[in-house]
């Protein structure tokens, strides 16, 4: 599925192994907006929605981040983590300007740890493809979406309906 991803209509290559439903979710590290380290193990035992965006400074990424931040308040058992390669300073500015308080925003700019382990890093661009990964409380990947065209929205309704069944 992810071998047919495009950006601006042009095929792209994603680094790392494709993450699939049923796999154990790889641990990853990233950087929080305050420059401290984020370790995915901090959320062990919780349902996690990893909302993957290329850059929060684009219209679709902004919408995706705000939408999932709003949805995060509806289920206290679900943690939403938005991941991009934006610098933590830009993420902090964005979170303050958009009242992102119900979800976590982290940067994968330093090592592309998430991007490679989850198969979202775009070769040669140092950006992440757009997508969604849902991990259950037992660290099992339960839902994966690699958005076919990086400039398109994920299927919000489908992922939100899926989360309601967990």
TrEMBL record:
Sorted alphabetically, which InterPro entries does this protein's record hold?
Answer: Redoxin, Thioredoxin-like_sf, Thioredoxin_domain, TPX, Tpx_CS, Tpx_Peroxidase_subfamily
EC class (word): oxidoreductase
Which UniProt keywords are given for this protein, alphabetically ordered?
A: Antioxidant, Disulfide bond, Oxidoreductase, Peroxidase, Redox-active center
Q: Which GO terms describe its molecular function?
A: peroxidase activity
EC number from the UniProt entry:
1.11.1.-
Q: Which residues form a coiled coil?
A: none
Give the Thioredoxin domain ranges. Answer: 19-166
Q: Which Pfam families match?
A: Redoxin
Instruction: Please report the name of this protein according to its UniProt entry.
Output: Thiol peroxidase
Organism of origin is Fusibacter bizertensis
